[in-house]
Design brief:
Chain lengths: 212, 458
């Protein structure tokens, strides 16, 4: 292929064409033009210097760009308390505020019920009270469990079936009992629970716990 | 007109380049299958053009995204443009896949086109990245839940999973930051990467020339004394001298592009771009389903359970991606004809059947809990009530009756034939195996009706 032969190329831009650099059949350095020694070393020095300078400029811009773009992956880890959830099952939101989810006497023992309450939410620059759904299971007159309503497999929304008192995931058939334990399917661990307080007959929740 | 053309040509000096491009000889045995690459390029151009104009009416925040998509659909030609963007996106995934398959079967990834393949493999990943980030943008139910599932799959990876998840979502939950990020990735990061890689890909294709279709018998007698490069150059020169000018094959490319355009318009006008209800993170009855091109992966997740699942999924994905990129270095040898590469062809067949099969299973799989078994005319009132209990309790999540329902538990199509009523009853209330949850919460009447119904299945 004559077009790859550097001796026939007159266009100065293709002379520095790196695609011909590893040409095994060309004996001389195909990047170098036919020039006498002094000019050649100066050319190499100038081009090498420009390459190094270009790399430095790229790094100077690239470092802050990549650091900013990836900031969510490494920032604000230190302010996290150990009891707050580590694994992310959306759209669970961390909150230190106690929120009432209803009177315990309004719930039937052992039957899960879906409740939506307004909780303070921090979502990037959005700070507002937003509706958050939870499953409440009353255990006794003074005890209740409050679950995050998402499958621990891939976060699909769990539906509660009344008769069996179980939670079923529509994505891959995972199911949980009313204690949140996995009864079938691929979920890797039990349902996530909220920190719960039953005070004067009122069920209140705070943070989502990382351990079930 | 000619004078104007000459005026520009004297200033831009384009005609030698143009002539070198369209008049260069290409191998003669290039046919319709070689149009898949240009069809892919055509769809990319359609995506870019429609995508640019869509950004002019779209707002990437949870409070506004859905409303702005409704606004697009109500603006004249808005629904059409969004429909074209949606449908050509699906076709793009399909055509990238077909183009890849064609190149592999033709052995066109062999020397000296290995780099073209590697760049193409990354282009394939970029197209999938476009599909994944693009579908969150309408902020409807499908968008929201598909992204929940998709990011969680990435997040399940061992060691790096948590960081990847946070990196994708821009935080721990899916929300405003995620949408802004996906938007930025979809309209800046991926297009920029795509253009650079398409540039390299096209440059390599033009510099090396289009690969000739493999021949069972070589066009020139092999000369063992030649180096690989020389032998290749000799053979390709023979293909070119027996070939035709490039503009001949542009006719086929043009026809395929026109047909694709017609198909995209028919789909965009006939079916339109879908839009679910607005994303609701608190809904508990939504059944997340991915777009068709991710159904195979979604379906795959049925089959792995237990602690090793994340590791296994991660390994399957990385190994598959790695093999895909490195194909030209794994499938070597001089014979390019598919009939002389039986192992490669069998493996290709297995992969294709696997992908098509999983997609089919995923498309026809009944979402757990959502399917209802229909009543039949010959049923008694008790059996009908039992069927209602069966449907409302989500039994179909795990059990199948006459082809409808899940696969986790046994098929109950012949329950009455296989088990005694008393055994069925015991199994419902106090199951023998761990997988089956106890349905002891059912009332006595419900239980009687349910057993009555199941016993009737023979």
């Amino acid at each position: 292929m004559t077009e790859n032969d550097p001796t026939t190329v007159n266009d100065p831009t293709t002379e520095a064409d790196p695609t011909t650099e590893n040409d095994p059949t060309t004996e001389n350095d195909p990047v170098a033009p036919a020039a006498d020694g002094g000019d050649l070393s100066r050319r190499r020095f100038v081009l090498g210097g420009l390459a190094a300078g270009g790399a430095a400029i790229a790094a100077a811009i690239g470092v802050p760009v990549v650091a900013f773009g990836s900031a969510p992956a490494w920032q604000w880890k230190e302010e996290e308390s150990a009891e707050l959830i580590e694994t992310s099952i959306p759209p669970t939101l961390r909150s230190d505020v106690w929120t009432s989810v209803g009177k315990i006497s309004d719930f039937e023992v052992g039957a899960p019920r879906y409740v939506i309450v307004d909780r303070p939410v921090v979502d990037g620059w959005v700070r507002e009270d937003a509706p958050i759904g939870v499953y409440v299971v009353r255990k006794s007159d003074t005890e209740a469990i409050v679950f995050d309503p998402h499958c621990t497999h891939l976060g699909c929304p769990l539906s509660a079936t009344a008769g069996s008192n179980s939670f079923v995931c529509p994505c891959h058939g995972g199911s949980f009992d009313t204690d949140g334990n996995v009864t079938s399917g691929p979920p890797p661990h039990a349902m996530f629970r909220y920190e719960v307080r039953v005070d004067g007959g009122d069920i209140a929740i705070r943070a989502l716990l990382s351990e079930s | 007109m000619r004078r104007i053309g000459r005026w520009f040509d004297e200033r831009l000096r384009l005609s030698p380049l143009f002539s070198a491009f369209v008049d260069r000889k290409v191998p003669g045995n290039i046919g319709w299958f070689q149009t898949l690459g240009s069809a892919t390029l055509f769809l990319i151009v359609v995506q870019i053009v429609t995508g640019i104009v869509l950004t002019m009416s779209y707002a990437p925040t949870p409070a506004n995204a859905y409303q702005s998509v409704l606004f697009i659909d109500q603006t004249p030609f808005g629904a059409l443009v969004r429909g074209i963007h949606h449908w050509s996106a699906g076709l793009l995934v399909l055509f990238v896949g077909l183009h890849t398959l064609r190149v592999f079967i033709w052995g066109a990834h062999r020397y000296p086109r290995e780099l073209t393949w590697v760049v193409g493999a990354f282009l394939f990943f970029i197209v999938l990245g476009f599909a994944f980030t693009g579908y969150l943008l309408p902020w409807d139910q499908k968008a929201y839940w598909a992204t929940v599932v998709g990011t969680n799959i990435a997040g399940a990876a061992p060691f790096i999973g948590d960081s990847v998840l946070v990196l994708l979502r821009g935080g721990e939950q899916l929300g405003a930051v995620t949408l802004a990020r996906f938007y930025g990735i979809h309209v800046w990061v991926l297009p920029a990467s795509l253009l650079v890689l398409v540039g390299i890909h096209m440059f390599a294709v033009i510099r090396q020339g289009i690969a000739a279709s493999p021949r069972r018998h070589p066009i020139v007698e092999p000369d063992p004394s030649l180096s690989r490069r020389d032998a290749y150059e000799r053979e390709y020169a023979a293909e070119k001298s027996a070939g035709k000018p490039f503009w001949h094959s542009l006719i086929k490319d043009g026809i395929v592009a026109a047909l694709l355009l017609v198909a995209v318009f028919i789909l965009a006008i006939g079916a339109g771009a879908p839009l679910d209800a607005v994303a609701d993170p608190n809904s508990t009855n939504y059944v997340p389903r991915p777009e068709w091109y991710f159904l195979d992966l979604f379906q795959l997740l049925w089959y792995f359970t237990g602690d090793a699942e994340p590791l296994f999924i991660f390994l399957v994905f990385t190994v598959a991606a790695g093999i895909f990129v490195l194909v030209p270095f794994l499938d070597r040898g001089s014979a390019r004809h598919p009939l002389r590469r039986p192992i490669a062809m069998v493996l290709t067949g297995v992969v294709v059947v696997g992908i098509v099969g999983l997609t089919y299973l995923g498309a026809t799989a009944t979402p757990a809990g959502a399917i209802e078994i229909p009543a039949t005319a010959d049923m008694t009132p008790a059996q009908l009530r039992g069927l209602e209990v069966f449907n409302s309790e989500g039994c179909t999540s795990c059990h199948q009756i006459h082809g409808l329902g899940g696969h986790t538990g046994p098929d109950l199509s012949k329950a009455g034939f296989r088990w005694e009523p008393a055994d069925i009853r015991t199994q419902i209330v106090t199951p023998k195996n761990d997988e089956m949850p106890s349905y002891g919460g059912l009332s006595e009447e419900q239980l009687n009706d349910l057993v009555e119904y199941l016993t009737s299945l023979k």
